[in-house]
Amino acid sequence: MASLQNPRPRLLTAAALVLGASLALSACSSSGGGGGEGAAKVSRPASTSQYQGTVLGKHFEKPDLVLNDTSGQPYDLRARTAGKPVLLFFGYTSCPDVCPTTMGDIGVAMSKLTAEQRQKLDIVFVSTDPERDTPQVLRTWLDSMGKDFVGLTGDLAKVKAAAKPLGIMVEDPVVDAKGAVTSTHGAQVLAFLPTDDKAHLLYMAGTSTETYRHDLELLANGVAV
């Protein structure tokens, strides 16, 4: 499997991080990051933080995004998650690898927290294949990982516009001759803190359940990055 060689220890761009994910993915592949304003920088080693996720030097604004939730009702991401720790991931339900693995690992990590800690956290999954990911399909898929997980689906143009400033590229789904769907998207999970509702942490594909459990507990307990 290809991998990035000799990454800089203190300064990584979102494009480089996304490239690392793309080399490890097939159907859930990634293109280059947003660049420009979407370039995420890691300004200090992760060892200086209690968190095990990658610490971002630039704190991204939470997307101004309104889509339908799994009950079919409009869901304003900023308004509904204001003042809470949030994990945000873009993907699609028919993804054969990274999407179910990532969400499943987060689900297992959440199950190891106390009920009080879980209530303080919002896990949000935004579909990159809204034509097939109806609210019902999305709810059934998410329920196998976390019944409290928020699923959002709707206008793909809105999804792409919301992802781009975060350094996450989302492309239009492609259907092959056999009807299989490939949705190319960034594989990053971003963690937004309740103190400023901005992204401070990033997790790549392959992040362990234990890392998620460790960091989700810190987030729920209000530990600063």
Helical content class: 25-40%
- Structural class of the secondary elements? alpha+beta
Report mean pLDDT, rounded to a whole number: 83
Give the DSSP E fraction (strand runs of 2 or more residues): 15-25%
Low-confidence runs? 1-27, 29-46
Rg result? 16 Å
Q: Based on CA inertia axes, which overall geometry fits?
A: globular
Task: Tell me which oligomeric state these chains represent.
Answer: single chain
Largest sheet: 6 strands, mixed
How many beta-strand segments?
A: 10
H/I helix tally: 7
N- to C-terminal separation?
32 Å
Neighbour order of strands in the largest sheet: 1-10-9-4-5-6
Helix and strand run:
HEEEHEHHEHEHEEEEH
Write the layout of secondary structure elements.
Blueprint: H1 14-22, E1 54-61, E2 66-68, E3 74-76, H2 77-81, E4 86-91, H3 98-111, H4 115-119, E5 122-127, H5 135-143, E6 150-152, H6 156-163, E7 174-175, E8 181-182, E9 189-192, E10 198-203, H7 209-220
Parallel strand pairs: 4-5, 5-6
Antiparallel strand pairs: 1-10, 2-3, 4-9, 7-8, 9-10
Briefly say what this structure is.
The chain has helices at 14-22, 77-81, 98-111, 115-119, 135-143, 156-163, 209-220; strands at residues 54-61, 66-68, 74-76, 86-91, 122-127, 150-152, 174-175, 181-182, 189-192, 198-203. It has 225 residues and is an alpha+beta fold.
List its salient traits.
225 residues; 10 strands; 28% helix; two-stranded antiparallel ribbon; alpha+beta
Structure description:
The chain is an alpha+beta fold and 225 residues long. It is built from seven helices and ten strands. It has helices at residues 14-22, 77-81, 98-111, 115-119, 135-143, 156-163, 209-220, and strands at 54-61, 66-68, 74-76, 86-91, 122-127, 150-152, 174-175, 181-182, 189-192, 198-203. The strands form three sheets. A six-stranded mixed beta sheet has the order 1-10-9-4-5-6, sandwiched between helices. A two-stranded antiparallel sheet has the order 2-3. Strands 7-8 form a two-stranded antiparallel ribbon. It is globular. The model is unreliable at 1-27 and 29-46 (pLDDT under 50).
